[in-house]
């Protein structure tokens, strides 16, 4: 069932390539303990069976902490493991198809790189948007570059949550959040760190401070 009041502020995207001997389940749990509030399981170049087995193990972790889990690309895996939803890229099946398969109560997120794409995806029924890449990233080298100005424009024009992705870490997360978005998707700035919990906690702390400033400005404006 789709969760109400979803917290997109610190959105973890998994990548096992950074983990060495650590299991993905343990890494995800450590990230959640540090403040990750939303998890996207992203796997490439593995069999459907292995993807499903991994998804089922990760779902056990996210369920234990009450954190939403979406599956990257694979609507079938999301359906089979009972995930909270799916995240679709530009080359994946459409939002309406995902909705038809998963049902109206599941989360369907989608990637956008332009205002036009964002508006179209919102009109199709996407629950949230992942916008990027806002900074160069080695995780997804073929991603289109999105300026912070374009990011702010997208946030201003759509009514659904917007999450920025691409090269985001503690050094630039504050700058990204000034665009008024709802959260940031982080990969290596958490997954590649020796102390995953501490890395997540550090970014979550910055996010909390930035969101508090934004709420303060809204309150001040409302009282003027």
User: Given the C-alpha coordinates, what overall shape results?
Assistant: globular
Largest sheet: 8 strands, parallel, barrel
The strands making up the biggest β-sheet line up spatially as: 1-2-3-4-5-6-7-8
Overall mean confidence score, pLDDT? 93
Judged by helices, strands and strand pairing, the structural class is alpha/beta
Enumerate the spans where pLDDT stays under 50 for 5 or more consecutive residues: none
Describe this structure in words.
The chain has 224 residues and is an alpha/beta fold. The chain has a single domain, classed as Alpha-Beta Barrel (TIM Barrel). It has 9 helices and 8 strands. An 8-stranded parallel β-barrel has the order 1-2-3-4-5-6-7-8, surrounded by 7 helices. Helix 1 (24-34) runs parallel beside helix 2, helix 1 (24-34) runs parallel beside helix 9 and helix 2 (48-65) packs across helix 3 (75-81). The chain starts with 9 loop residues before the first strand and ends with a helix.
Task: List its salient traits.
globular, alpha/beta, 9 helices, single chain, eight-stranded parallel beta barrel
Quick rundown:
This protein is 45% helix and 16% strand.
């Amino acid at each position: 069932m789709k969760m109400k009041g979803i917290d997109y502020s610190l959105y973890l995207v998994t990548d096992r390539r950074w983990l060495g001997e650590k299991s993905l389940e343990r890494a995800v749990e450590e990230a959640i303990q540090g403040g990750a509030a939303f998890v996207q399981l992203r796997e490439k170049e593995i069999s459907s069976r292995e993807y499903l087995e991994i998804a089922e193990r990760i779902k056990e972790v996210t369920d234990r902490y009450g954190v939403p889990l979406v599956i990257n690309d694979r609507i079938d895996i999301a359906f089979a493991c009972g995930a909270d939803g799916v995240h679709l890229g530009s080359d994946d099946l459409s939002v309406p198809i995902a909705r038809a398969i998963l049902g109206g109560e599941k989360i369907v997120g989608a990637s956008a790189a332009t205002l036009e794409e964002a508006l179209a995806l919102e009109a199709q029924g996407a629950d949230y948007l992942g916008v990027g890449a806002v900074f160069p990233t080695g995780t997804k080298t073929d991603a289109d570059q999105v300026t912070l100005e374009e990011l702010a424009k997208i946030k201003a024009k759509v009514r659904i949550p917007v999450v920025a992705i691409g090269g985001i870490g503690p050094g630039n997360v504050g700058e990204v959040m000034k665009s008024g978005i709802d959260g940031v998707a982080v990969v290596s700035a958490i997954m590649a760190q020796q102390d995953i919990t501490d890395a997540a906690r550090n970014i979550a702390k910055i996010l909390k401070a930035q969101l508090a400033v934004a709420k303060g400005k809204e309150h001040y404006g409302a009282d003027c």
